[in-house]
Design brief:
Strand content: 35-45%
Largest sheet: 9 strands, mixed
Oligomer: single chain
CATH superfamily of the largest domain: Class I glutamine amidotransferase (GATase) domain
Number of strands: 26
Strand order of the largest sheet: 17-16-18-19-26-25-24-21-22
CATH topology of the largest domain: Rossmann fold
Helix content: 10-25%
């Protein structure tokens, strides 16, 4: 899992995990039912950029208009990203026809496709009377999947009057770019706790465009949860992160390709300190390697000097605390996954379940909560791939943990 290991054994990883690499529902084009979109919303407007596209889309009484910038096709584009809007300084859109009594989500796809050193921010004004404010700080407009650059999709909850305006602002690089913009309206009257799964980068053998939607499906089995997927860790620096009751760290960032500044670290720290919930999934323990304070938030972190994990395969998970709300009345179970042996840290944790290594016969925590922190933080090393997340025991634990992190009492299925 260190960079040398990744380079040396990349071919092995492709062989070992290639069987699951095609199961990537998150890579599909945005459309109703896409796993990234929050449940309980409908797609009411969708502006797809490209050469020959109109500068205005009207749908369901809503109008999305490109008010500054031009459009072009993208050579060798992935099917779901056929083109882009661009401008030397800033791209601007207006969205009108909104119902002030409704809740909305605004999403977009961006991609520094030619790796030209772009960094850009996002500004938003929720009505004509207010100035735009920064909702996403300057960041690299792309993601990485299987060590390859790809587009990134971000979506945020918004409440406007009758209109809003959004701008994509160049910080560095030749121009600002964005590939599509979509608007969702909440159609379900049920009040749910809002959970965001944050992805956008990981180790080469972790196909988050498959495991992210699988996790979202698990969490949506609880009808009290509204689940979103955002493909950029920079979301933690957005003031809109407070619109989510809990967040799931489902990424491992690499600073040499996706640098995250202190505003992202501070945003996560503030988010948890403010009492919000956090779920750390699998290699999320390896995130924010440049931030010494990360271990204080998540309890244990990846130590690259330690042996990483047992060979992928079966092991038995022992419930260490059958009285905790997350593990209440659960029985031990067998799963096939990676048994992590690489965690280190001093903060106080309460172990909920554990497993014994087949290599050194020592027991290691597989899931725990961080005890001396204002927010609710749950950390689990289970969930290497889609098959491991489809095991009933792992599904039950993640579903219960997300409810607990969001401030709900976990329930049986």
């Amino acid at each position: 899992m260190n960079r040398h290991w990744i380079v040396t054994f990349a071919a092995v990883a492709v062989v070992a995990f290639g069987a699951f690499a095609d199961e990537l529902p998150g890579a599909a084009a945005i459309a109703p039912g896409h796993p990234n979109l929050p449940n309980g919303y409908e797609l009411v407007a969708h502006f797809v950029c490209g050469a020959g596209s109109e500068n205005k889309v009207e749908s369901n009484g809503n109008v999305v208009a490109l008010t500054k910038g031009a459009q072009r096709a993208v050579a060798d584009a992935e099917n779901s990203v056929p083109g882009e809007a661009f401008d030397p300084e800033r791209i601007e859109f207006s969205v009108t026809g909104l119902d002030p009594a409704s809740e909305y989500a605004l999403g977009f796809t961006w991609w520094d496709r030619d790796r030209s050193g772009r960094r850009q921010s996002v500004e938003l004004a929720l009505n004509e009377a207010t100035a735009r404010s920064v909702i996403v700080p300057p960041t690299v407009p792309l993601a990485f999947h299987g060590d390859e650059p790809t587009f990134a999709r971000i979506q945020l909850p918004v409440n406007a009057t009758s209109r809003l305006s959004i701008a994509f602002v160049k910080d560095s690089g030749p121009d600002a770019v964005v590939s599509e913009l979509w608007l969702l309206r909440k159609t379900d009257a049920q009040k749910r706790k809002r959970v965001v799964i944050v992805t956008g980068d990981d180790w080469t053998g972790h196909y988050w465009r498959g495991t992210g939607p699988e996790l979202a499906g698990i969490l949506r089995e609880d009808p009290r949860l509204e689940v979103w997927i955002v493909e950029s860790p920079a979301i933690f620096a957005s003031p809109f992160i407070d619109g989510f009751d809990a967040a799931v760290i489902h990424f491992k960032d690499y600073s040499e390709r996706l640098p995250l500044g202190s505003e992202v670290w501070n945003g996560l720290d503030r988010y948890v300190a403010g009492g919000h919930g956090l779920v750390v999934a699998h290699f999320g323990c390896g995130s924010f390697q440049e931030w010494p304070g990360y271990v204080r938030v998540v309890g244990r972190i990846w130590d690259p000097k330690k042996r990483g994990h047992d060979p992928y395969g079966p092991f038995r998970v022992r419930i260490a605390d059958p009285a905790h709300p997350i593990t209440k009345a659960m029985n031990e179970f067998e799963t096939s996954d990676e048994l992590y042996t690489c965690l280190a840290g001093e903060p106080k944790i309460h172990v909920l379940y554990a497993a014994t290594s087949c290599v050194d016969r020592q027991e290691y925590p597989m899931g725990f909560v961080v005890t001396e922190i204002p927010g609710r933080v749950f950390h689990s090393s289970l969930g290497h791939d889609v098959p491991s997340l489809r095991h009933p025991g792992a599904r039950e634990l993640y579903r219960r943990a997300a409810a607990w992190a969001a401030g709900l009492e976990p329930t049986a299925p």
